[in-house]
Amino acid sequence: MELAPHLHRLGTDIVACYLFDSPEGITLIDAGLPGHWSDLQQELDALGKTPADIRGLILTHGDSDHIGFAERLRRDHGVPVYVHSADAHRARTGEKPKAPAGPMRPAPALGFFWYGLRKNGLRTEYLKEVTEISDGDVLALPGSPVIIAMPGHSPGSVAVHLPSVDAVCVGDALTTRHVLTGRTGPQPAPFTDHPAQALASLDRLTHLTTSWILPGHGAPWHGTPTDLTATIRTAAH
Ligand SMILES: [Zn+2]
Fold this sequence. Notes:
Elements: E1 2-4, E2 7-11, E3 16-22, E4 25-29, H1 36-47, E5 54-58, H2 70-77, E6 81-84, H3 88-93, H4 106-118, E7 131-133, E8 146-149, E9 158-162, E10 167-171, E11 175-177, E12 184-187, H5 195-201, E13 212-215, E14 221-222, H6 225-236
Parallel strand pairs: 4-5, 5-6, 6-7, 10-13
Antiparallel strand pairs: 1-2, 2-3, 3-4, 8-9, 9-10, 11-12, 13-14
The site of zinc ion (ZN) has 6 residues, from loops.
């Protein structure tokens, strides 16, 4: 699905990842669940591209619903996978502290788990190799993505700013659709290691003037990070 010229979304409001396309090649942000591999193939076909055009995959964090096809892309197509050093272990092993899920409603929660099953969420392949990144890095990939550390959801959560398309991918630093309650609108994400730290990290976005904020779960949000942060702080109280 094309969000804007050069900017595409794979997946749905339940689980999404993003593709930046340019004449220099493709940058991916997140890898969804293993079954999103076929969504990636469809999007590449529609663009007249192949996995050989993908220059790199940046993970917003190391959780299993974001690393889906990453190892397959790395192993079979030689695509480097970037993750913040504080989440590299999680991306390699899946080990993480147990974070409280918080509120839940049966139908949306079942919808999330069912979607996960259909997309082979139980067959996570962890990364054998990653390239570690840190706050402030500007990666030598199409779109010159800028890494903004957003600790809280996980220690190595990052936002990925793509200045040329006026967008920032935020992973689970926030959500616009709570996967377990189905509630829509900007709000804190569930399964967050340190909720207070995640809220504080939102301030790290407010210097951006981007008009697209792209979460790992929920609809793309059109507006400035400053407005979004204010909405989330209200929702969190
Ligand atoms: Zn997630």
